Amino acid sequence: MTATDRFDRFVIDPFGADIPAESARLRALGPVVPVELPGGIPAWAPTRYDVLKELILDPQVSKDPRLHWRLWPQIGEHPSWGWILGWVGVVNMLSTYGADHARLRKLVSPSFTHRRTEAMRPRVEAVTAELLDALAAAGAGGDVVDVKAGFAHPLPMRIICDLFGVPDGMRDGTARLIAAIMDTSDPSPEHAAFVQQQIGTVLPALIAHRSEHPGDDLTTELIRVRDEDGDRLSDEELLYTLLLVIGAGFETTVNLIGNAVVALLRRPEQLAAVRAGEIGWDAVVDETLRVHPSIASLPLRFAVTDIKVGDVTIPAGDAIITTYAAAGVDPARYGPDADVFDATRGAEDHLAFGIGVHRCIGAPLARMEALTALPALFDRFPQIRLAEGELRQVPSFIAFGWQQVPVRLRG
Fold it and tell me: Minimal CA–CA distance to 40: which of 75, 65, 88?
């Protein structure tokens, strides 16, 4: 029996307006649920921690649509599916399988070693201090300031652009490109065309600039690999690897910092315990990633063979989304209060950074940035509090974060 015999497809909200509530509704339907993504793309959504972990680690689950998605040849027949090309119509670690995935990961992983991450710490600390000074000036009169726009976004953006040698004049365009890819609220052909046009403009311009002006940066390193050994990295792989590592290198950290700030300000007793040294900042970061993972659901993976999940079969060739938000608050794993932010829980086993050969290579950098930014922010502004008004989720079922984080820096 397949799940399509038992349920209609659950339509995923393209705006991601209430991801926790949607995760709960999905979980009530079973361990893996047939869903419809924006534009009408059919897929399967795991709803339990153990199921998602098993699928991520299963060698019979692929990331390569060209090899293993039965609907890949039909994308051109469905204009409303064009938005997915920014995720699977590329050639990088996010869309390759087996030996190709291992090859691309091996090329990029050395750039995110512990040594290199630690070497960036002074720069992260300097940018943090600079941005906090600017934030203090903006909120000096008691005005509401946006911690996301003034701190959580520019910090990782500047760091990743430094790391990849993105010149100042290209940084705004790079940020707009990543935001457009993350925005799943508009599955129109026009939006998809805009994204593809930006991918074909912004990144080639960076590659051209660094080819002409090489420096001590990761874009220059990847260009050198392409030029010296094209069998290891093609032009296409270079372009889309930059798209992945630059985008993932700042957008997810933006949400990590912003989500942690909101979580602590909404749980003042937790914040007080952190300030008293009773809870460590590492625990805050892990609990944020568990309850509010920067990526809620990531498209797409594909069943290489029929895969049994309980009494449900995911047929070979079907698409699967990796549902980090649902897995992180699975009561079977984390107890009946799994949806409650509690940094004393000890949630180091969360899947928000992936696992095994699919663990995010930028995780150490993201963690280091958050562990620098968060204590610095709360030390500098011990009276910080959320401003009045409702917070709004970014328009995406993929990204899990706030459009703005308005605060008052003094009580």
Answer: 75
